[in-house]
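HUMAN: Would you supply a protein with fold tokens?

ASSISTANT:
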Amino acid sequence: MDVAVSTLRLRSAAADRPALRLRAARELRAAELAPAGLPPAAVLVVRRVRDPLPGRFGAGHGRPPPAWERAVRDALAAAARGAARPDREGWLPPGAEAVLFADEAEAAACLVRDWLRGTVAERWWWRCSSSAPG
């Protein structure tokens, strides 16, 4: 399972913001954040994950500390356990904080159903570029 981050908000006292962004991007690419227990084909879209260990990410070591990676994986696993799943008609509750699709085909089918219903713009998970199937 690949992990994609749509929006990352960083807080830092560092004056060199471009360097901070590059460091954060490098660390995220190197991090192993996929939660255990999800099938490889699953598509998990999480609205928000707060930093579980503030101050440990972005230190510039090329990859985040293992404890931070574990904490994020645990947070994503908890989100997956509480994630909404589409019903037989592809409906998902609009207030869900996380949604879990069995695979990209199920996500695509739900996207088409929401498009036909005219509800795509109302669903935050379709606005995330990382949740688009394909």
